[in-house]
Amino acid sequence: MAKLKTYLVEDSPVIRENLIATLEELAPVEVIGTADSESVATFWLGRHAGSIDLVIVDIFLKSGSGLGVIASAHLPGQRAKIVVLSNYATADMRRKCLELGADRVFDKSNEIDSLVNYCIHQSLPDGAAAT
Amino acid sequence: MSSAGWSRNRHYAFPLVALIALLLLVISDLSYRQAVSSLDELGRMGVVRVNNLTVLRQIIDAETGQRGYLLTGRKEYLEPYDNSIREMNQVVAQLDTYYRNDPDGHAQFTKLKANLNQKISEMQETLDRFNEGKTDQALQLLLSDIGREQMDAVRAIAQQLIEREARKIAVERGEVYTTLRLGRMGVAAMTVLSLLALAMYLRQRMAIEGLRADQQKALERERDQLEALARERTEQLTELARHLQTAREDERSRLARDLHDELGALLTAAKLDVARLKSRLPEISPEAATRMTHLNETLNSGIALKRRIIEDLRPSSLSNLGLKAALEIQAREFADASGLKVETQLEPVSLSPSSELTVYRLVQEAVTNIAKYANATEVHIRLAPHAQGAEIAVTDNGVGFDTQRQRRSSAHGLLGMRFRVEAEGGRMHISSVPGQGTRVSATLPTAVREPAPSLG
Asked: pLDDT tens, position by position, for chain B (456 residues)?
């Protein structure tokens, strides 16, 4: 079971550390890079197009917005799944994120389990092939 | 000082002029009466003079008649004599009345009367002797100088009386002339005084007009100063309100950020720990599993509370999704919470971030008021581009209110909103009629400011 190469865009160091630990413990995930702002994330994603499987994005960032990150990650050449993990997962925000190209939107507080399950599902060969 | 003194003089000027005018009137009237009585006196004097002449003529006529009779002995000559004596007596009686009030004249007149009586008795004596036939005695009496002397005396005294009257007439005429001169002077003086009073009056009027103009100017100056002061104060207050508003929004924003970043991170970290623990559920006791489920619920409640507080402090939708979307969300949330029918008609507009926040807060305030007081069933929110900016309007079909007598609690909110709108350079308008709903609207200009720092 190959680990999902994951890029994490999250500005809070506390969440970043805990989230990496949690995901790597509970799901076949390897976080290969992080960013805390839109510009850094966009730049990194531009350089590493095609080499990652999953992008986890928070909406509120130190500077810029996760929405911009979604847009840049959704460009042609990016095969990674885009997942939004936000404290602001209202219906409108979900719709907006999906419009911009996100694959799923998870609530940071209530849907950690769903995110873990999604990651497990993505790492399965047939699940990956299905999408 | 001098002008005050002058004005005091002016104060007395009119009574003085009036007094002088009254005096002149009295003098004029007195001189008129004087003139009238003088003229009456002159008339009487004329009569007296003529009477004296008449007495003289009658006595001469009587003497002539007597002599004619004595010469001819014809009775018809006696008739003029008798007539003359009778008429003379009448005139003498009149003169007697006149001279009774004139002691000086009376003495002379008495002398005249005595001489007349002597003359008459001398003539009568002569006639009596002639009638008795004593012609010689009568002739002798006639030829004697007695009659002539008496006649001369009468003539002299009468002449004196006549001259005396003439002198008195001259004096009286002199008085009339004096009186007339006095009247003439009075009229001239009155004319001069009138002109003087008119001049003073005009001067006073001009002074009053000048004073009034000065006062008017002073009042206008004062009003302008007050207006400028009021304008300045209003500007200061607006500036202060704007500053406080900005400070408040900044504070709220900072608080929301802290809550989101710090508290949010901690809660999420706790949740992540719970997730990790849950994966080892089989390893822990059922009781610990129950406690963990409870912990998870507690964390969820804390997260929900934090979210509500943050959203209340700062509409994250506004910075993330823009004004139009934020208002749509607000409208939908309000409709869900209140159960009212909310219609939106929102067009994209271009506003500064602070103006967008003002629009958002205005809608928030308006719908809060509607929920509290309006008792409405429908709410209409409209956002549209305006001449130099945007117009926002929130209309309801509720009970409305008298805009002159607003409820206090809502009035403060609306007043604060008005300040806020005006601080953004906009204008707010509230129209409401009891029973016919309320419309809160505002126009805000498109401000050219630096782009808003994005919320992270």
From this structure: 444 445 555 567 678 778 877 887 888 888 888 888 888 888 888 888 888 888 888 888 888 888 888 888 888 888 888 888 898 888 888 888 888 888 888 888 888 888 888 888 888 888 888 888 888 888 888 788 777 888 888 888 888 888 888 888 898 888 888 888 888 888 888 888 888 888 888 998 999 999 999 999 999 999 999 999 999 998 888 788 778 888 988 898 899 888 888 888 898 899 888 888 888 777 778 888 888 889 989 998 998 888 888 888 888 778 777 899 889 988 998 999 889 999 999 998 888 888 898 999 999 999 998 998 888 999 999 999 988 789 999 999 988 887 776 655 566 778 888 888 888 888 999 888 888 889 999 999 986 544 444 443
Task: Taking each helix axis as running N to C, give the angle between helix A13-26 and helix B264-278, from 0 to 180 degrees, rounded to the nearest 10.
Answer: 10
Q: Which pair of structure tokens corresponds to residue A25?
A: 């413990």
Cα gap B117→B115, rounded to integer Å: 5
CB of B439 closer than 8 Å to CB of B389: no
Closest-CA residue of chain B to A91: B329
- Asked if the Cβ–Cβ distance from B456 to A113 is below 8 Å, we say no
- CA dist B40 → A101, B31, B45, B166, B170 (Å): 136, 14, 9, 15, 14
CA distance B270 to chain A (A): 9
CB contact under 8 A, B321 and A96: yes
Query: For an interface test with A, which of B266, B271, B318 has the most A Cβ atoms less than 10 Å from its Cβ?
Result: B271
- Tell me the chain B residues in contact with residue A21 when contact means C-beta distances shorter than 8 Å: 272, 276
Question: Which ipTM did the prediction report?
Answer: 0.83
**Please, what is the end-to-end C-alpha distance for chain A in angstroms?**
17
Q: Interface of chain A against chain B, CB under 8 Å?
A: 11-15, 17-19, 21-22, 25-26, 37, 59-65, 67, 87-88, 90, 92-93, 96, 108-110, 112-113, 116
Kindly provide the residue ranges of all beta strands, DSSP E only, lying in A1-131, ordered along the sequence. 4-9, 29-35, 54-57, 81-86, 104-107
